[in-house]
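Worked example 3 (structure in, sequence out).
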């Protein structure tokens, strides 16, 4: 589930149609904090909350051992897009290949499970 989610998340983030609106929100958020807050709550926070709920269920099922599922969800999502999204955001690189996405997400999932999987 984490691998599939991670790949879908990165593919969504790295779409050209998603970068421009994000840049726009970031540029006006200082002057209009409510725009930034609304964007964050409808996007990143929503994803963190949904993944956190799944992680809560995995903790309850004794599959994972996580102290704070909100933090763990944010860590998982951040590490999946690591090295791929920010270059796009700053026009410093192109979209990642499917192979690169699979490679980075694979590392992120293995790292996550090494930290949180019950032994």
């Amino acid at each position: 589930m984490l691998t599939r989610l991670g790949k879908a998340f990165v593919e969504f983030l790295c779409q050209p149609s998603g970068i421009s609106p994000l840049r726009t929100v970031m540029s006006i958020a200082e002057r209009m904090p409510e725009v930034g807050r609304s964007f964050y709550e409808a996007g990143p926070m929503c994803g963190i909350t949904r993944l956190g709920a799944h992680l809560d269920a995995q903790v309850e099922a004794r599959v994972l051992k996580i102290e704070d599922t909100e933090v763990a969800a944010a860590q998982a999502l951040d590490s999946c897009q690591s090295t791929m999204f920010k270059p796009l955001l700053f026009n410093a690189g192109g979209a990642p290949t499917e192979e690169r996405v699979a490679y980075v997400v694979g590392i992120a999932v293995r790292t996550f499970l090494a930290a949180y999987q019950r032994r």
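Notes: Residues 2-116 form a domain with the Tetracycline Repressor; domain 2 fold (CATH 1.10.357). The helical segments are 2-13, 16-28, 33-42, 44-60, 69-81, 85-89, 98-116.
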